[in-house]
Each structure stands twice: as C-alpha cells, then as structure tokens.
Specification:
By secondary structure, the chain is an alpha+beta fold. The longest helix is centred in the C-terminal third of the chain and has 29 residues. The N and C termini lie close together (about 10 Å).
Length: about 325
C-alpha cells in the first residue's frame, strides 16, 4: 500500500512539473540574425537573442544542399569547415547566442545559417540567413540591431528603429524597404535615396502583416541588411465591438423582415384555414448552441492550468489518505 501511494505521488509530481513547463510557453526570439555583406577573410559574427529560462542553442548550416549540425563533428571535418576560417564556432553570453567565422572564404557565399533555441520542453527556430561573402577589398559591414517583431493596433502611430554602429566612427546611412512575401529577396525601396533616417513609421491603416527591412551602409561602402521585421496590425477592440454590434443589428433587422414576410405568407384566406405552425416541435426547439460555442474559446493555457490544479489537489488528497492510513496501522 505504501509503495503504491508513494508511486502515485511521484507520478503526479512529475506530471505537474512537466505540465507547468509546457504551460510556461516556448522561448521567444527578440533579436534575429542580420544579413551583412562580409568581405572575404574577415571576421563574421551572427547572433540570436531570446527570452526564456534554461535556454540552449544549436546552430545549423546549409551547404551544397545538405544541412549540418555545427556542434556535431564526430566523423572528422564537415565540408563547410574548410572555408570557415582559422577559428569558428558558437558561443553565448546569457541568453544571446553567437556563431563566428574568423577568416570566412568566398566558397561559403550563398550558404544558409540558422539557430534552434530550446528550453528542454519547447523550441523555436530563428530566421534563416543567407551568408554573403564579397571581395576582400570591400569595406567592413556595420553591426545592426532591429526588433524581431512588432505588434500594433490599427491606426496607431508605430515606429521601427534600427540601431547600427560602424568601426572607426564612419558615417552611416539608412535605407528602408518593404517585402510583400516576408523574404529578403523580394524587398522594394520605400524611402528616397536622400532619406537617411534610422527609423520609419509603419503603415498601420489596414489589419494584417507587413514586412520591413533596413539596409545600413557605411561611408566606405560596407553594407548590412537587417532581418525581416514582421509588423502585425490588429483591429482595435472598440472597432471590433462596433463592427460586431453593427452586424448583430443588421442581422436582427433582417430577421424581423423575414418574420414579417413569413407571417404575411401564412395569413388565412377565404379558401384556406389557419394552421398553427408556430408551436415548437422536437426539430424546431431552440438548443443551447451559444453556451457550447462560447466554451470552445477557452485557451490551451487555461486548460493546462486547470489540469495542473486538479493534479495538485489529487496529490494532496492522496497524501492525506496515505498519512491517515499509516497512522491507523
């Protein structure tokens, strides 16, 4: 009896811990890797930053149509490593994860790099960046940082700011683009060549997602494209409520009109007798569909929390029963 009770308590405890971890949600990336034009043989650094606890990261590199886990090099050197420079590899500083190439070569131009961050229960994948390696004579690209994503209400004034710095205090210019597909390859300029502002005001006139990119250029010609920044525009709650009310009113007016037409159509004439067709039958009795549809809106997080509370209560109850049983013996 004691072993069974202890086993049940352990199972419940592990279940509660596991469900709590899942309920906490997956890690959130706050800084995506950027897209610099890297001169050949230069030192290149890619970084990803995330919010979460107990995070770890794995970097993957796609080269010549094959994907390699950069941390697993058990069977000798992977093909891409020949061109990665004298030293290369990953590192971290708190929840910021880096991958560096010290002396990258032209053969890695076009390869793709991304990072998978996990906390032991959930994982999230960063943007995939295409490594760009230009001639050795090209200037060093600036360091760039932009928000990973932005959320705004419809009609709300919302700005995106690009933070950049260059070596030797070079002057920087900023050019903003928009992508209709969310891909860097499909960007189109939305600012004039004469506009060099480090921020842009987003278009929030319509509900949906727009994608922005900032290109930063140094006075010596170094170029970095930012990660693609998705801006999600949501409808204002007041507007949503007003729209729903208008729909309900129009639906009510339509129903009243239909009812009036039906009554008119069923009025008795000299050749017909009135039929009492308005009495509800088993097929026409109203059902409680509103309450059932409303319950479907409960979020998964709330369900998980309810399950956790039930498990905790069960564990406490079993513990109390176990204590009473042992005392009686």
């Amino acid at each position: 009896m004691k072993k069974i009770v202890i086993g049940l308590i352990l199972v419940l405890f592990v279940s509660v811990i596991t469900l709590s971890a899942y309920a906490a949600g997956q890690p959130t990336i706050t800084l995506q890797p950027q897209n610099p034009n890297n001169p050949e043989y230069s030192c290149v650094l890619y970084s990803v930053k995330a919010d979460g606890s107990n995070l770890s990261a794995t970097w993957y590199l796609e080269y010549n149509g094959k994907t390699y886990n950069t941390s697993k090099r058990i069977y000798g050197m992977q093909p891409w490593e020949v061109y990665a420079g004298e030293t290369y590899g990953d590192s971290r500083e708190k929840n910021t994860f880096y991958f560096a190439f010290d002396g990258i070569e032209k053969e890695l131009d076009g390869a793709k790099l991304y990072c998978v961050i996990e906390d032991g229960h959930n994982e999230v994948k960063s943007d995939v960046v295409t490594i760009c390696v230009v001639d050795e004579s090209e200037a060093q690209p600036p360091e760039v940082s932009v928000p990973a994503a932005v959320t705004a209400k419809k009609g709300e004034a919302t700005d995106i700011r690009c933070i950049a710095k260059a070596s030797d205090g070079e002057q920087l210019t900023y050019h903003w683009y928009e992508s209709s597909t969310g891909k860097l390859a499909d960007i189109k300029a939305i600012t004039d060549e004469s506009e060099y502002s480090d921020f842009i005001t987003c278009d929030t006139s319509k509900v949906g997602i727009r994608y922005y990119v900032c290109m930063v250029k140094t006075s010596s010609g170094g170029i970095t494209y930012s990660s693609v920044i998705p801006v999600t525009v949501k409808a204002d709650k007041n507007e949503t409520s007003s729209t729903a009310l208008q729909k309900d009113e129009s639906k009510g007016a339509s129903s009243e009109q239909d009812l009036a037409e039906n009554i008119s159509a069923t009025e008795p004439t000299d050749s017909t007798q009135p039929i009492d067709s308005t009495q509800p039958t088993d097929l026409t009795k109203p059902t409680d569909s509103a309450s059932s549809s409303g319950n479907s809106g409960i979020s998964s997080t709330i369900v998980l929390m309810i399950v956790i509370i039930c498990l905790l209560v069960a564990a406490i109850a079993i513990g109390i029963v176990a204590i009473i049983t042992m005392r009686k013996k």
